[in-house]
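Working notes for the structural subgroup meeting. M.R. asked for a predicted model of this chain before we commit to crystallization trials. I am recording the input and output together here so anyone reviewing the notebook later can reproduce the run.

Input as submitted:
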Amino acid sequence: MSKIITTPDGRVLEPVTPSNDLQKLQEISEKLISDTTYQQILNNNTSMNMFDYMQKFPSPEERLKFLTDKMDSMQKRYYLASKFRDLGQYVLVKEYLKYDEDGQVQVAQTRLMGIE
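Returned structure, recorded in token form:
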């Protein structure tokens, strides 16, 4: 269902498995949507489809982007080794920072951003 994400530092982020309650809700909504009576109600202009107003579940990529966009970060530029200079001169990385209870900072994640 969801694909596995590998971070630039080699860690593997497993896909999130929906809870039993969420799976039941998805099954019920699929049955309801496929029901002909429900389809007739939807075709009536006076009705409203409640599923159009329900929030869609984000993909693992969207969740990771949301989490890292909220973190403090800094971008760094490193020289590429000479054997890779046909790709560019620099590699750009973004380091996401997290703070401990004392206010000390550490790099929580590093992400490759591009090559110049």
